[in-house]
Structure formats: C-alpha cells, structure tokens
Amino acid sequence: MASFLNKRIKLKHYQHALSLVFAIHETNNNPRLLNNITLGMYAYDNLFDPKTTYETILDLLSAQEKNIPNYRCDAKNVWSVIGGLTVENSLQMADILNNYKIPQFIYGSFEDTIRDKPNLPFMYWMGPRESTHQMGLVQLLLHFKWTWIGLLVSDDDKGENFARKLIPLFAQNSICLAFWQRNSASHYDLSNPSVERILKLMGTILSTDVTVIIVSMDTDLIFTVIFLLEKKIELLKSYFGKVWIMPPQWYLSISHRGELIGTNIFHGALSFSTHTYFVPEFQEFLHHFKYDSALMHFFCLFWQGAFKHCKHCREEKLDELPEIIFEIDMSGESYSIYNAVYAVSHALHGMHLTRQRAMWAKGNFDLLNIHPWQLHPFLKNIRFNNGAGQEVVFENGGFPTGYDIINWVTFPNHSFLKNKVGEISPSQTFSINEEAIEWHRTLKQVCICVAWLSTSPPFPGADMHSQTGEILLQCKEGSLTMFYCALGYLGFLSSISFTLAFLARKLPDAFNEDAALCVKCPEDQYPNENKDQCIPKTISFLSYQEPLGIVSTVSTISLSLITCFVMQTFLKNWDTPIVKANNQSLTCILLISILICYLATLLFLGKPEKVICLLQQPIFLIFFSVAVSCVLAKTIIVVLAFMSTKPASQMKKGLGKKLGSSVVVSCSLVQVCICIAWLSTSPPFPGADMHSQTGEILLQCKQGSLTMFNCALGYLGFLSSLSFTVAFLARKLPDAFNEGKFITFSMLVFCSVWISFIPAYLSTTGKNVVVVEIFAILASNTGLLACIFLPKCYVIIFRADLNSRMCLKEKRKHST
User: Fold this and answer.
1) 43 located within any domain
2) Within this chain, do residues 24 and 47 fall inside the same structural domain, yes or no?
3) Angle at 330 between CA 324 and CA 334, to 5 degrees
4) Which residue from 451, 421, 446 is spatially nearest to 436, judged by alpha carbons?
C-alpha cells in the first residue's frame, strides 16, 4: 500500500511550467513587444524541499551551475524569477534574490503580514491574499447559515496559522466548531504513529452530525485521509454525505490504477481557486506542443507519468490526455505565471523605449546591458493588456486578484466537472449562484421531532423533497388533536409576546433588547441580503470608458465639429448678403457660444475634481446666457429694422453693432454677476452621494448654494422666455432673409427641452442625473444650431443664386 503512494507524481503542477513556455512563446511572437529581442527561460523543480530551493537559486545565478560563494563569474543574464507556489518557498528564494535585487513574482496566495515586511522590497504578488480566502469562507458559511462545522488542518506552521486567523472570525460571526484536528503523515507511511490520529478522525467524521467540513491541508495529506476514509466506508457500507470545503490549489488525486480518489466523498465539494480568465490560445498551444532537447530533462518525468505506454512520447498530444491526468484549461496559478511573464515583457519594453529616447543620438539600444534592479521602477505600477485581453494593473507591487468558488461534480466513470458557482473579489465582495450548485447525492438533514408522550407519537413520514441540495426527512403529526392543541398553545404564547412587545415599542434603546442586536452599517458600507454583515460600497462616477460616457463624448465632439463647419462656412461667405443681413458680429458670437456650450459637457464626465466642479456649471450657464442674449439681440434688430421704414426714422440710427453689443453685454453681465456671487459665497465642490444607489458611492459635484444655482437657472429661463416672446411676435414680418421664423422655432425647441428637463432631473438618481443634464445641454444647443443656421447654410452651399443683392431687392419688392 505504501509503495504505490510513494510513486505518485504531481502531474497537474507541470501545467505551471507549460504556461510559462506558452507566455514566453506568445510575447516573443508579439511584434509590438521587444523587437529583435527574444526572451528565454530556465525551469527548475525544487521538489518542495528547502535545501533544494536554495541550491536551485544558486544554480540559476551561477554560470555552469558552479556555486562559488561571494563570486559571480560569467553570471547568467537573469532579469526576473517566478516562484514559488507556497509562502515558505517564496521566502527561501527571497533570501538570496534580494541580495541581487532581482524581481521575484509569487504566483501562490500570500499573507498580508509578509507582504508588508520592509525587507522584501523586490517581491511582486500575483496571487490573492489569504485574508480574502478566509473572509470568503466566512461569507460562504453565513450565506448558507452553516454555523456548526468541522475543521481539519495540517500539523505544521501553515495549518496552525490558518486556524489561528480563521477561528476568531468564526467566533465573531457566531460560527461554532464541532471539532478541530491537526493531521500529519510523513511521506504517506501508513505505519507512522500520526496515522493513528487519522484513523480516530475517521470515526469522528462518520459519527458526527456535522454536515460541513473545512480542510486546510496539502493534496498529498488529503489523499491519505481520503484513502483511509474510503476504506472505512467500505467496511461500514454506509456514508452520509458531507459538504467538503477544500483549500486553494487542491485537485482530485488519482490512484495507481488511474482512478479518482474520493469520487463518492467529494461529489458536491466546494473549493476556492485563484480567479482566472479563459485563454483559448493556450489549448491550441498544448495541442501542438512538443518538447525539444532543451526541455527534455524537465518534462521527461512528466511525459513518462502521463503517457505510461508510449514508445515515442514526443508524438503524443497533451490535449488527448484524460482530464483526471491533465487539464487543458489554464488554472489560476498558471494564469498568474502567464501575467507575470507579460509584466516582465512590458517592463523591458518600457525600459527599451526610455533608453531609445535617451540614447537616440548614440544609436546604442543594447537591452542586454541592463541590470535586474533597473526593472523595479517600471514594475511598481505597470498597466497592460495580456494576451487574453484582460487589463492587468499593478498596485503597490502586485496584481490584486480574488478567488472563484468551484463546485466539484464527479461521475461514476472517474471523470469530473469543475463548475464555477461564485466568486469573491479582491475587495472581499462575495457572490454565489445557489441554483448552479450540485450537492452530494446522500446529503441529509434529519428533522428531530419532540413528541408528546400521550396518545400516538409522531412517526417518520415518507415525504421527502430537495431543499438546497439536502433531503429533508419530515415528521408526521400522529394525533391531530394533540397537534392542534400544541399549535393553539403556541398561538396563545405568540399573542402575549406581541402584546407585550407592542406596549414596549417606545421604550428607550437602553431597555430594548432588539436594539442591542442591530448595528447600523457605516456610510461607506451596506448590508448584505441576509442583513447580517456590512459590505464595502464600490466607488462610481460617469467615466469616459462606460457606454453612456462614450456616447456623450462622441456626440459632443461630432456636434462641435458641425459647429466649426458652420462657422467656417459663414467666414468664407462673410461679405455675402445672407450673412450681412442678420448682423455678422452677433452671428459669430452666437456660434462661438454654442461651440463652448458643447465642449462644456465634457466637464461633466470623469472623476469630479475641485477645479472641474468650479468650472462645470458657471461656464455652461454664462455661455448659454450669451447665446440666448445673441438670439434676443438678433430678434430685436429684426423688429426695429422693419419699423424703421422711413429714411428719416430715428430708429434706424439705433440699429447696428451698438444695439446688438449692448443687449448681449447687459443681458450676459447679469448672469456673470450671479455666478460670481455664487462662487464667492458657496461654490460647487466635489462630494459623494452615499445613499441614492445601493452598494455604490457616487462621486459627483455638489452645487454648493442651491439658491444661487436656482437663481442662475431662473435667469436663463427668463431670457429664454423673453427671446421666445419677441421672436414669436416678429415671426411674420415681411423681410428678405427674415430670421424671425427660424428664431421662433429655435427658442421653441430650447424652451421645450428645459421645461422637460426639470421633471426628468428631479426624478432620476445616481449617474443618470449627469446624463440628463448633458442631454439637455446638447439638445437645446442643437436646437439653436439647427433652426437658425442650417437653412442659411443650405442657401449658401446649395442655392448660391439666392445669395445675391439682386435676389435681395426682388424679395424686398415682393414683400412690399
């Protein structure tokens, strides 16, 4: 029995090395990364042994693997090191690598306390935090209301640290431990005294009423425990299913016959796996992968273990292996290695571009002369897209990632399915899909009934139904008379309790027991669905990257370009009658105001800042007032021009630039004074809305003084109403190129937009408030532009024959 246990090979860990080969192959074939530079690799197996780890690192840093202390003769060109899988291996490697300031990428999970150590400045963490896993366990238990559990950990520092951090979290959330046991089995020797403790554990697992068991042990120790548990189940010929919550990096083991170990036991188990994205090119790479002579020594043992009966192993294909031997989907750890290679490649690429700019005159861009420590400034906060299209952002020397919650489904033919049923993010936001979970087939929750002793007692019934994957064995009532008596007495007690609670509802909180049990969440957190835990809110604002922001930006730029085109058209035809007839200077000011109002909408996008909030509303209000004042001035000029029909009329003297300029300046100056008073008393400022959206903190610009803001809007409404009234009265005045009708339509659109804006603004919340305001600005602006200027542009571009003095005289004669 011990012999075949010793021969087991961890085949699945070889995917880590294959993902490294794949990532280097992909980056070397990327024409936008490291032109004329080819990345290489060294692959070592430390066998999870500290002594081998130190020897391996020294071999890596020494030429021809001659380890000479304090000397580096013909050292290898090592720019970074990826490893290890465990915290212990990572620290052992860092003991040597830190002396050379070589970047080290850790692709396993890590402890927060280790990351914050000042003596480890050259380590980059690609895996998730252990605290994220621990909080995910607690949230998973609370979600299903599992408060009576068992805990199995390894008998070493790792297992003790795991229990030391997790048990206080259980106590804080009223989760009780039915049993807690540390286990060890050296080299899977079944004659070892520690196995006796495991055998006692078998009895505990099979006899306890605990349904949920959390495991924190390595895969080999789990293999020993499950192997013995299966033997025990075969003797008893019965097993009530459990919910096993397995550790990260765990996978189903296989026996010497190639069969899954624990197929019956682990059906429906849950585990946490490092979050990963699907990389389709990886499967194609595995399909065509054939190791060469350089990789033969590393992959030879793997190839022989995977393809037991092959004579020419290089002809075999990895994607033809059964899933119990080798999975072709990239695991979480492999995905972390994949991202680490891309991080190094982009850092080298950034250094190459920096050197290229600095040494352009010399023409020397030798990337091989760099030192590993020179990569750190580029790695600290690097941002890039990997080959899978996912954006990878380093924050404080690492890539923050979370865990996927995996549901393991096994089948009688010794195959299995890993089904993602939930996740926990780096910010510890928890989500799970209960309907997607497949529970153990024999999982039972027995209903224990307390029966009355007289007459007929309750008896087990045959009604069984599924309840969250558990079979609930119900109890029949026995004597209906006694059953109804018991229900009646329960109703009597409930009535008394309700009456007393109603009378005591207004007592101070110091005497209210329920008040002591409820705690209000802080403003930056919100309660979960069960109302038993506070979850941090996410920060939200209308950004340029989201769909609404993109649509707003594209619309603003497009309409601004159209305005520029109209302005250019009028400037090219500056001396033509249709431009002169309606006051050229007012037309130019109006177009500039419309353009600035369009561009002002860009201030409403992005993260609110102090300067942006100060400029956002005042710029929009002032230039909108200028635009409406120009419209009012043009309308007044049209009316006065019609009234001054006699050559000696005194009104004709008031026409011209002075009248238009005075109207625009006087009307706009009022709005400017209102905005100055607003900014000097209580200006807008960046703030956060904590309450309008559940689970979100909305960053937005607060108006400061609502009174001043409403005054500015009210004055703009007054100007618009006045312009609309004057334009409406002048709409039928007979004159060539009369703008009265066009201005009437434009002000009708303008006023309609802002009248409908008020209820829409008051009825929306969150980011939609900003979207409504942007839409109102764009729509009203477009109404002015389209109704006033498009008819003139049509005449200028397509009917140039109408844009002449002769046509103007004929129109005047006809109108007279």
Assistant:
1) yes
2) yes
3) 110
4) 421
What is the C-alpha separation between 665 and 697, in angstroms, rounded?
42
My answer on whether 149 and 191 are in the same domain is: yes
- Over residues 260-306, the pLDDT tens digits come to 777 778 888 999 999 988 888 888 888 888 777 777 777 777 777 77
pLDDT tens-digit map of 503-535: 655 554 443 444 434 667 777 777 877 776 777
CB burial class (10 A; 0-12, 13-18, 19+) of residue 124? buried
Q: What's the rounded Cα separation, in Å, for the pair 163 and 153? A: 7
Amino acid at 582: N
* SS3 label, residue 766: coil
Q: How far is residue 436's CA from residue 420's CA, in Å, rounded to a whole number?
A: 8
Residue 624 shares a structural domain with residue 773: yes
- Report whether 81 contacts 102 (CB < 8 A): yes
Q: Give the per-residue pLDDT at 422.
A: 93
Is the bond preceding 332 in cis, omega lying within 30 degrees of 0? no
Token pair belonging to 435: 């309907």
Cβ-based neighbours of 274, under 8 Å, separated by 6 or more: 109, 127, 128, 248, 331, 332, 333, 335, 336, 401, 403, 404
pLDDT lower than 50: segments of the chain: 1-8, 186-188, 361, 444-479, 508-517, 646-648, 736-737, 812-813, 815-816
How many helices (H) and strands (E) would you count in the chain? 25, 21
Token pair 């499950």 in the structure block, residue? 226
Residue 72's pLDDT is what? 58
Do 194 and 283 belong together in one domain? no
Q: How far apart are CA 163 and CA 787, in angstroms?
A: 73
- At 245 the pLDDT is 94
518 is a domain residue: no
3-state secondary structure of 169: helix
SS3 call for 178? strand
Indicate if 635 and 781 belong to the same structural domain.
yes
- SS3 label, residue 805: helix
424 Cβ contact partners less than 8 Å away, ≥ 6 residues apart = 132, 135, 136, 139, 272, 402, 403, 405, 430, 431
Alpha-carbon span 95 to 105, nearest angstrom: 14
Residues 109 and 242 in one domain: no
Helix (H) or strand (E) holding 699: strand 696-702
329: in domain: yes
Give the Cβ contact number of residue 530 at 10 Å.
10
Q: With beta carbons less than 8 A apart as the criterion, state whether 626 and 664 touch.
A: yes
Q: Is 712 contained in some domain?
A: yes
- One domain for residues 467 and 454: yes
Owning domain of residue 680: 547-815
- Whether 179 and 282 share a structural domain: no
Selection from 780, 405, 326 nearest residue 559 by Cα: 780
CATH number at residue 738: 1.20.1070.10
Q: Which pTM does this prediction carry?
A: 0.55
Distance CA 333, CA 109 (A): 9
Q: What is the pLDDT of residue 6?
A: 35
The total number of structural domains in the chain stands at: 4
Q: Which among 429, 375, 377 is positioned nearest to 400, based on CA atoms?
A: 429
User: Any idea what the CATH number is for the domain that residue 100 is in?
Assistant: 3.40.50.2300
